[in-house]
């Protein structure tokens, strides 16, 4: 206890009073708090959470070694510190890449277009919306599993290359035929760009989100996984229950109705840049509800 008390007194003596707090200091504190909060939220939803607990054990051991002057252990920890940091970057390269991509999506810079780039004013037509909704609920009625990924701002070319090129106009008959049991293209995901199905049997990354229900199968985890890695809108039809769900931004909305699915598709239909705020969403939903009389599946 004497050693612990001496260590605490020594550390407290090293603390110096800061200069008077200024406005820029408050801004820095708020920014640091914002980034630390989102870092903790990210860690909780990935496999990094388990590793973090191991790192905390090592840190606690290092503190004890410092208190009791275990010089050999302190030397080994210092020598391995740089190597451990490099190893962490290598181990968590996919997660770090995902964080940087999400940071780029959520900043004001994400709305800036490079010279010569063209933005579509409409992602897909109302006919495509109706065809997707009709196909999903017809497949759900007979419990045919399906995974449909709709491309938005971030290109899905890396996942498109893992499948078989289709390049066909989106119709309910084509979607149902693709996911029909015992057909060559039924296994994997379909990727839709605009009004066309560009690829089928695509492989998607599985989600590492620990909060997802253990009852969810590979199809649902793949749908959430691609929505975490990109800004895509993914529709999942359960083979076990026939329920239709969708995933966007890493969040899964289960067992939605045809009107709910159609409304969400209309939400992203005319958003060429980033999604609007809640007020904009309300206005857009009001305009789109007038179009919902086009029939349900």
UniProtKB/TrEMBL annotation:
Gene Ontology biological process: cAMP biosynthetic process
Catalytic reaction annotation: 2 ATP = 3',3'-c-di-AMP + 2 diphosphate
EC number: 2.7.7.85
Start and end residues of each DAC domain: 93-258
Keywords from the UniProt entry: ATP-binding, Cell membrane, Membrane, Nucleotide-binding, Nucleotidyltransferase, Transferase, Transmembrane, Transmembrane helix
Positions of transmembrane segments: 20-37, 49-68, 74-92
Gene3D superfamilies hit by this protein: DNA integrity scanning protein, DisA, N-terminal domain (3.40.1700.10)
Region (Disordered): 268-297
Class in the EC hierarchy, top level: transferase
Molecular function, one GO term: ATP binding
Amino acid composition bias (Basic and acidic residues), ranges on this chain: 273-282
Subunit structure: Probably a homodimer.
Family statement: Belongs to the adenylate cyclase family. DacA/CdaA subfamily.
Biological role stated in the UniProt entry: Catalyzes the condensation of 2 ATP molecules into cyclic di-AMP (c-di-AMP), a second messenger used to regulate differing processes in different bacteria.
Protein's name in the database: Diadenylate cyclase
Organism: Candidatus Fusicatenibacter intestinigallinarum
Phylogenetic classification of the source organism: Bacteria, Bacillati, Bacillota, Clostridia, Lachnospirales
């Amino acid at each position: 206890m004497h050693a612990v008390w001496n260590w605490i007194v020594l550390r407290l003596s090293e603390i110096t009073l800061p200069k008077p707090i200024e406005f820029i200091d408050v801004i820095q504190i708020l920014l640091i708090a914002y980034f630390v909060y989102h870092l903790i939220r990210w860690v909780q939803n990935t496999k990094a959470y388990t590793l973090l607990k191991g790192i905390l054990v090592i840190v606690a051991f290092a503190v004890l070694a410092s208190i009791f002057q275990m010089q050999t252990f302190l030397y080994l920890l210092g020598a391995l510190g740089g190597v451990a940091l490099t190893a962490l970057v290598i181990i968590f390269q996919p997660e770090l890449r995902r964080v940087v991509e999400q940071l780029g999506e959520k900043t004001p810079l994400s709305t800036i277009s490079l010279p010569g780039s063209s933005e579509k004013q409409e992602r897909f037509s109302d006919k495509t919306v109706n065809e997707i909704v009709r196909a999903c609920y017809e497949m759900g009625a007979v419990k045919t599993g399906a995974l449909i990924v709709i491309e938005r701002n971030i290109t899905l070319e890396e996942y498109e290359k893992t499948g078989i090129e289709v390049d066909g106009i989106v119709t309910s008959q084509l979607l149902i035929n693709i996911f029909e049991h015992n057909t060559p293209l039924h296994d994997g995901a379909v990727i839709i760009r605009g009004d066309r199905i560009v690829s089928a049997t695509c492989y998607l990354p599985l989600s590492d989100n620990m909060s997802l229900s253990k009852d969810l199968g590979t199809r649902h985890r793949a749908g959430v996984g691609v929505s975490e890695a990109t800004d895509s809108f993914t529709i999942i039809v359960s083979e076990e229950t026939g329920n239709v769900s969708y995933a966007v931004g890493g969040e899964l909305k289960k067992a939605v109705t045809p009107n709910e699915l159609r409304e969400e598709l209309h939400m992203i239909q005319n958003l060429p840049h980033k999604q609007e705020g809640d007020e904009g969403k309300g206005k857009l939903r009001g305009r789109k509800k007038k179009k919902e009389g086009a029939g349900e599946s």
